[in-house]
Design a protein that fits this description.
Blueprint (H helix, E strand, L loop, with lengths): L4 E4 L9 H16 L3 E6 L9 H14 L5 E4 L4 H13 L3 E4 L2 E4 L6 E6 L3 E6 L6 E4 L7 H11 L4 E5 L6 H11 L5 E5 L2 E2 L15 H6 L4 H9 L13 H7 L10 E2 L2 H14 L2 H14 L5 H7 L1 H11 L6 H6 L21 H15 L6 H15 L3 H13 L7 H8 L1 H19 L1
Parallel strand pairs: 1-2, 2-3, 9-10, 11-12
Antiparallel strand pairs: 4-5, 5-8, 6-7
Helix pairs in contact: 1-8, 4-5, 7-9, 10-12, 12-17, 14-15, 14-16, 14-18, 15-17
Length: 436
């Protein structure tokens, strides 16, 4: 068996979306699993619609997903070769000129069978096909012709692409036959459908690959999600990149269409957030905090990487995306926070005064760990004659601006005694002002 050589061949007429990303991933995984070659080929023959911006976005999307390529080509660099092969087809009588374009002549009788590794045998009668343009009047090649020439010249062994291309394959096989070339193996991957079982589109919320980065989805999660869109390994849902490379092969690809499930993606992202190294998570969170203007970079840097990593561990328990985590990160950063308007019931006079006492004790805390904060909070409650269940909710709102969140004592330890003491005093003062 020849060494595996596969290609991902996007047209740069727009951004790389979910369907294209899954095709790229399946090709990449197949190449890496079989220790073969993954080729990126930009099919930019449509010069009226192809843009450099789209090409750069494709590169950026694949890099973000971690799909590295071994070779890269642009079809527009190969026009001379396409014209050379077109001339050969004409010499063989398989192509003819009409209206300034060069046409491939479909044989008048018989049939062509596609031996698809996923769909099985698909036979098309030649009477169902029409002659097709292979060179336009401006001498640029068309898709069905250029991809045959390029796949042959690049030694592609397997063409793994979406099922929407299956109707092109008989035409391409006829071109291979006319040139006396051996075609690659074909595997047409079933479509991705939206929840309503129609073809996936933007109205289902499926944007470009980099849109998911903007939404706070981890590349590990999106790769895991895309791999499971039409491929499976038993019931295992969470798979690392290394596991996918080790396990992926074409027999595991489903023949039925896959359904895009946004909730499943968010669930997987949460799983990957929980598995991520805290320090890497802290670095990602820091960038997102600044990008979303939750705080200035100086404030984030003042917290320090270690403390931000501890905050990230707490934030990821409830946050399903980096965006959710960043938007909830403000209490862990220096500076005042706003108290919710409906928190007045927590700050009765005896609680407000107790917050000042607690602030003083926190400032002198020798053990600013979760255990130390628990001890000082319980001790203060006992000394001022308040039950902990009356004081603790007010403390939580005073320091975080929210009634809900992670364990209170761990929350206080991550914030640190300076932030906690300052916010306890500020909450007490605000409560007294509200009472007038």
């Amino acid at each position: 068996m020849d060494p595996v050589r596969v290609r991902f061949a996007p047209s740069p007429t727009g951004y790389l979306h979910v369907g294209g990303a899954r095709t790229a991933l399946f090709n990449w995984l197949y190449a890496r699993h079989h220790k073969g070659t993954f080729i990126l080929r930009i099919e930019d023959t449509d010069r009226t619609r192809s843009t450099d911006e789209a090409i750069e976005q494709i590169f950026a999307s694949l890099r973000w997903l971690g799909l590295d390529w071994d070779e890269v080509y642009r079809q527009t660099d190969r026009f001379d070769r396409h014209r050379e092969v077109a001339a050969e087809l004409r010499r063989r009588g398989a192509a003819y000129e009409s209206e300034g374009a060069l046409w491939f002549r479909v044989p008048p009788g018989g049939a062509t069978t596609v031996h698809d590794l996923l769909a099985g045998e698909v036979t098309v009668q030649h009477t169902e096909l029409k002659d097709l343009v292979i060179l336009r009047s401006d001498l640029t090649p068309t898709y069905n012709f250029a991809c045959v020439v390029d796949d042959h010249d690049m030694g592609i062994t397997h063409v793994i692409r979406g099922a929407e291309h299956l109707n092109n394959t008989p035409k391409q096989l006829l071109i291979y036959k006319a040139l006396g070339w051996l075609p690659p193996a074909f595997a047409h991957v079933p479509l991705i459908l939206g929840p309503d079982r129609t073809k996936l589109s933007k109205r289902h919320g499926a944007g470009s690959v980099l849109d998911y980065d903007e939404r706070g989805i981890l590349p590990e999660a999106l790769v895991n999600f895309l791999a499971r869109l039409g491929w499976s390994h038993g019931d295992q849902e969470v798979l690392s990149r290394d596991e996918l490379v080790a396990l992926f092969d074409l027999p595991g690809v489903n023949t039925a269409a896959a359904v895009f499930d946004e909730e499943k993606l968010l669930w997987l992202n949460h799983e990957w957030l929980r598995r991520l190294d805290p320090y890497r998570l802290a670095d990602l969170l820091a960038e997102r905090i600044v990008a979303r203007r939750v705080a200035e970079r100086a404030a984030v840097e003042a917290v320090g990487r270690e403390k931000l990593a501890r905050a990230a561990v707490l934030l990821r328990e409830r946050g399903k995306t980096l965006v959710e985590m960043a938007d909830r990160a403000r209490p862990y950063l220096p500076g005042a926070i706003d108290l919710p308007a409906d928190a007045q019931d927590l700050f009765v006079p005896e609680v407000a005064s107790s917050l000042r006492e607690l602030a003083t004790r926190v400032e002198g805390l020798a053990d600013p760990t979760a255990h130390g904060f628990e001890a000082v909070l319980r001790g203060t409650a006992d000394d001022v004659g308040l039950p902990l269940k009356a004081l603790a909710p007010a403390v939580r709102v005073a320091v975080s601006g929210s009634r809900v969140g992670p364990g209170l004592f761990e929350l206080l330890a991550v914030m640190g005694k300076e932030i906690v003491a300052a916010r306890l005093r500020a909450a007490a003062a605000e409560a007294e002002e509200r009472r007038g």
